[in-house]
Amino acid sequence: MTVDCKDLPRFLDGQMNAAEQGGFRQHLGMCALCEARFRESLQLELLAHRAFPSHAPSSAKRPPSTGRWFGESGSGFKVLVACLAVLLFFPSAGHWGGEDLSWLVKDGPRTLEARVTYRAVDARYQPYVPDRSGAWSRPAVPSLPLQELSRMEARGDLHGIATAYLLHGAPRQALAFLKRLPPSVDRDCDLALLALEQARQGGPLDTRHAHLEEALELLAGVLRVSPRHPQALWNRALTLAELGLTLQAADSFGEVAKLGEVGWSEEASARERALRESTLWRGRAWKDAFAATRDLLTDASAPLPLVAVRDHPGILRLAFYDAVRAAPRRQDVLRLLPLARALDERYGGAVLKTWLSRVAERDFTRRGPLARRYAQLVLGALSPSGAVMEELRRSGEDDLYLGALVLAGSARQPVDSEALVRLAQASEDPWMRVLGELELARADQRDGRWWNAEQRLLEALDTCQKQGLVYRCLGLEHALTELYLDLHRPADAFLHAWNGWGRAQESREWRYEQLFLQELADVARYQHSFTSARAYLEESLVRMPEDCAQRTHVHSNVALLEWQRFRPDAARESLERALECERPLGMTGARVLSEMARSNPRPHDEHWLRRALADLRREGGSPGREALLLVFEGQFALEQSRDAGQALLWRGVSMAEHTPDSVDARKALAFGYSALLSEAGRAGAWNEALALMGRELRVESVPASCLLVVSLQHERTLVLARGPQGELKGAYSSDRREPLRDDASGLVPAELVKELTGCEHVEVLTRPPVHGLTGLLPDSLAWSYRVGRGARSPPAQGGQSSHLVVTEVASPPTLRLPKLGALTPPRVPDPWRVELRGAEATPSRVLREMEDASEVEIHTHGLFSASLSDASMVVLAPDPDGRYALTADKVRQTKLKHAPLVLLATCGAAKTAPFPHESFSLPVAFISAGASAVLAASVEIPDTAGGFFEKVRERIRAGARPSVALRDLRALWLREHPDDARWLSHVLLFE
């Protein structure tokens, strides 16, 4: 939401606090009326400065600024924005021509760690000295000399002006001028610098990551065009280091060092060395400690790694258990007593010493041979299956059998889950009890009870953290991340992956660092942050280049990333590198092979696909997983035999339809129907395609006229249209060369749009990723997205219902959201109106009140936060547990008894998560919960939009069809409020 335009005078007079200034500056960039008035006012101020120079701001000392680098204060800031306003009136592009710019490049250390591309500044190397004193002690932002800026403007040096603002802590002004420059690698490099510095200002985790992704994407584009661009290489290194990807950052600094720039190369070399040495030292220390633990299994006289307990207690404790179990004699067990004491001292208590003493009392004439076989299991000389497992089960040596069961699970062998849980829970050791909880969660997950698995893992993590078992806590974070990725909930997965990544670095657990790097890559890929995903993957590879399994995993995932970015040649190159180790490619590799069969096949692809599928099936899994494998197999076969491919696809689809709650099954349905629809389109079988779409979307009756159908499968597009006469026409193409963004304009051919002319209302049936996008049809048509949901019980008849209005919400102060204007009271008294205001408007209260409402209007802030929700969310007042977000998943779980009309007068409420297998947005969630229609915007909207939604509702109450009411009022509103054109076309209807 935005701030009212009446606040412009307060902003110009400096009467706002820092938070208000930030909110208004955002508003200024999006309000044409305020921008025009802003320019006029500040041009007059500048003219006054020129006419009365004696009244110019003095250079007297100012109080410290509150910002670090982006700080803005007092009259200095007003002069900066004055210059901005005037110069924006006369934009022109130019460059430095050797003029004296000593006023811009001061003596002493440089103020920015990053590098600007403006030659006059970057050509003069100055060392960077980090600010150790704290943000509060920074001096105020100095005002820029107007005369010098005027000279720059006169020679058309917009780049210089942007750099001046950049160096003087005015990033928004710098951004305004950079965007007026023609596209170039230098401009994009400086834009990336701005994104990096924005990320460094703190704020919500997802916002920081969005800025870093933007910076990486811009810099990747620069380096594709100019691989030796010094500033891009430098700033890329800083961005990677900000993400913790230190070896890639070192590589990028190394490239700068090779360029031989005076000063810069020396600093780059020093930075490269520091990053590389600190990272590799951590890896070497972990590997040395791990090697010492292996020696305990093979050498009875190996020194005890007591010193390593301080830095690597996790793997030392893990190895201690195996060493005690593998000790064939009593004296071999007792030899480990100092290690038990050291670990007990590190963790607290005496559980390990107690267990060791009990083991030492066992009968080693019986236990000794079993201990030797256990050592072979740990070292990989024996497989944890078959006769050896049965022997251990019957032996009565429960600790050996428990250890063997854990090893079997790690080796993906069948495990007696009940025995593992029983033995772990019987132990007095909290470490072992965590293993029991993990196994119970895995069993729940295998049986499809993911909600039980989730709750169990969260509770186990809470207990584990209280007990200080960091290594085991990392295992639980890893399990939760994998669970959420399996459920396609990347926002939840991100939180646990990021926490695990940070904890692994703090505790120096190198192996877990690698695991979480790869999971962060998966999360980024699910959220379509492809550049970050690739960076995480490549960092994990350069840390362990000798690991063949690692190389296969990384290159398979990079192949998928490149395929999703419409780079088939790069995808093929990565896939071939994944095959070099001759290991099964896993689920990701199987998907890439099935997709690439359409465009870039190789003779050996069938062999590798069959091997990957066979390996995945050996692991076992749910019916949903098998359905997905059948779909991959069918997609591949379709390019060789249409009949064989369709048969496999239908087997997968049919199996998936019986397990709709499985995420793998939903993926199988989406990918399977995509392939079937595209194949029908390729054959020109329009009626078959229409029937397929109706079946997939569970539409009870497909309209006989005034219908649009759109399906997108990567490079293939299918569009069907029925006009007023009911004749079905279609178009199919396979020439898409880039991903679909946030706008579907141009997706429907003009001749099919023309077919819909004369329709009173057009129903649109679409699938992801098209569903929920704007621009699919022109605003001159009345249309809505039809959301299929299968057979539903009819709305409740009679009984009390309400018109729920949520307004003037007391949002969390930490979000620093501007207060919204109050809703205008209804012109006609509404006896059914129920208002939730202020602190009462919590998520739990709103969800409860919605159940019995026949109308729901929510007037508050809307946000898209990848760290809180996988779709747009509505900001409400905090519940007692601190939760303030009304998210799509919570709405889906609600039953709306009276099929309400829902008006979401919030920013971006229709924004859809970028999931390829299902539409996931607030409007879809409301329809799934029972709403009859939902009106929402997919972009930021002003406070005044509440009046627009109110008038649409009045027309619907008067009997107008929702789509007609929206179309007609949009046209009328646009004539009366032309400045609202920016958001009006982004108001969408879902029915």
From TrEMBL:
<protein>
    <submittedName>
        <fullName>CHAT domain-containing protein</fullName>
    </submittedName>
</protein>
<dbReference type="InterPro" id="IPR011990">
    <property type="entry name" value="TPR-like_helical_dom_sf"/>
</dbReference>
